[in-house]
Design goal:
Elements: H1 24-35, H2 40-49, H3 62-82, H4 86-95, H5 113-124
Helix pairs in contact: 3-5
Length: 125
């Protein structure tokens, strides 16, 4: 379980129980500590990659991490349905291919990725 970034984690200066709270107030306390942590991003990615189900990691509660994973899964699904890799969709938006159909159906590229994701969710579910 040990990762090199853990050496620099702010949580090392606090009791372990702080990051495994039993109530919402405890989550807020842990999140405040994580907000100033220099390794919050790799901490969160570790928890997401290893599907850690308990505690506050990278400033995110269990519920927030489930939402992040769900959102990542939906984006991948939307990208596959569109016939594009996620990076290609983002590139189309950044480049500004205003009238190129890259979204769901004949949605123009000027639609945001978030809006195209919502459109796809309607079609999928």
């Amino acid at each position: 379980m040990y990762e090199r970034w853990m050496e620099h984690a702010s949580c090392a200066d606090f009791p372990r129980e702080v990051f495994f709270p039993t109530d919402g107030g405890g989550v807020v306390r842990a999140q405040k500590i994580c907000a100033t942590c220099p390794v919050a991003k790799p901490c969160l990615e570790y928890a997401l990659t290893h599907r850690v189900e308990h505690g506050v990691w990278g400033g995110c509660s269990e519920r927030k991490r489930r939402r992040i994973l769900s959102a990542r899964k939906r984006k991948l699904t939307v990208a596959e349905l569109n016939g594009h890799a996620q990076a290609d969709i983002q590139a189309d938006v950044v480049i500004g291919a205003a009238e190129t159909p890259v979204g769901v159906g004949d949605a123009p590229a000027s639609k945001s990725i978030k809006q195209r994701s919502k459109d796809a969710d309607v079609l999928i579910g």
